[in-house]
Amino acid sequence: MKRKDCDKPKELTRPLRRSARDSCTGIVVAAVGMLLVLETVAVAGTVRVWPTAVVVSDSVTLADMSELRGFDPASEAALRDLVVADVIAPGAILTIDMSTVRDALTSASVNMANVTLSGSVKCSVSRPATLGGRAATNVGGTVTGAPTSLPESEPPSTVIETTGPTLRRSVIDFFNDELERYNGTAEVTFDRTQASVLELTGPAYSFRVRRMRGPVLGSVSIDVDVLSSGRVLQTVPLVVRIAMQRDIVVARHTINQDTIVRASDVKLVRHSFTRLDRLGVDRAVEVVGQRARRHIPAGSIIDADRLEPVPLVERGQLVTLESVSGSVTVVTAAKATKSGFLGDVITVRSSDKRRRVYEGVIVGPGKVRMGGSSVATSARIVLAGRGE
Fold first, then answer.
1. Which residues are CB-neighbours of 368 under 8 A, at least 6 positions away?
2. Distance (Å, rounded) from C-alpha 263 to C-alpha 157?
3. How do residues 309-324 score in pLDDT, each as one tens digit?
4. Is 190 strand, coil or helix?
5. Could you give the CA distance from residue 282 to residue 139 in angstroms, rounded to a whole number?
6. What is the C-alpha to C-alpha distance for residues 355 and 348, in angstroms, rounded to an integer?
7. Phi, psi of 304 (to 5 degrees)
8. Phi, psi torsion values for 351, nearest 5 degrees
9. Which of 35, 84, 137, 326 has the most beta carbons within 10 angstroms of its beta carbon?
């Protein structure tokens, strides 16, 4: 007996097929040249959709509005050129949602079992006509089309305005200023799709950089206002990776437990950091004279956890006393009246007949410094056995 539900009414299937064909024609035609490559997408990867993007061509590709991660090089190259929307007119804004991205991938015969869609559910894509007399530059889905201005109460520590030679240099200078507190310099990694906009240059343009979110090091979001004659032409949101180059103290050779660290035991090396939790020490004077808590292998970064403080000056020890006044430094010998660690303020007694007592700061093993702009204001001088 023939089942009625097995029949497929031709009058229903034809219109549905035609409708699907018409709605996807543009995308399918644009993707025909890459079908064979896309069918081979076997390595699982992620397509992370940006919330905003800008393009300079008629069509919108997957690379224009998203970040691709985890795919093999051949698959990524093919996916980057996949057309998601056919036409966007100069000056227009087009909203593309996640379902449109999924339809474009499916129509191009991409195996969706190997693709994870993430990020924003909608991407607002704009195509500015010009940017200060030159074509707006696509930066891989990370440029907004609408100019914006700074909030009135932006924290000054997160904003810097510069007329440096390029936008790239301005961003690097911004992070160098941030990392100065750690005695480090910034190592900034930009996305390769951002190359063109990063070369926007002064004096035609000035740039205002501000941090949006992210840790001190690692993946950081920033906004860069491109200004001309004080007017914001465009705001460029960028996601960059920040590492920090910093001089640190390492063990020149193996340092045994309970050994007092000498200057010859350590050296300064340049190191790249991606986290702030283990920065080590950047001045040899801070470790020389300290005792190793445990065995320190050669080449290891030396930090406070590996050391225990021991007095850099012992009571009764003959020390070097530096008296600083402006650009003049007078060095003499004195005797410590008490023990102390690095940075401690102690009194020392001169070795001459007057036996004056001075107050200074321990700055190294057997070394005390007093003074600055004025000896009288930074060091207290007391005659032994008498008041001032």
1. 313, 319, 320, 321, 322, 334, 336, 346, 348, 360, 361, 362
2. 37
3. 888 888 999 999 988 8
4. coil
5. 37
6. 10
7. -60, -30
8. -95, 5
9. 84
Instruction: Summarize pLDDT for 153-209 with one digit per residue, the tens.
Output: 333 345 566 656 788 888 999 999 889 888 899 999 988 767 778 888 877 788 889
How many angstroms separate the CA atoms of 365 and 288, rounded? 7
Go through the chain and tell me how many residues it has.
Answer: 388
- Give Rg (Cα) of the chain: 33
Q: Which two tokens stand for residue 50?
A: 């940006």
Q: Distance between CA 170 and CA 160 in Å, rounded?
A: 9
> Domains in the chain, start-ordered, CATH in brackets?
21-126 (2.60.480.10), 158-245 (no CATH), 247-308 (3.90.1210.10), 318-383 (2.30.30.760)
Supply 168's token pair. 């790239």
Surface-to-core class of residue 347, CB atoms within 10 Å of its CB (0-12 exposed, 13-18 middle, 19+ buried): middle
User: What's at 148, amino acid-wise?
Assistant: T
Could you count the other beta carbons within 10 Å of the beta carbon of residue 318?
Answer: 14
How do residues 336-355 score in pLDDT, each as one tens digit? 998 888 778 899 998 877 78
Give dist(CA 49, CA 98) in Å, integer.
8
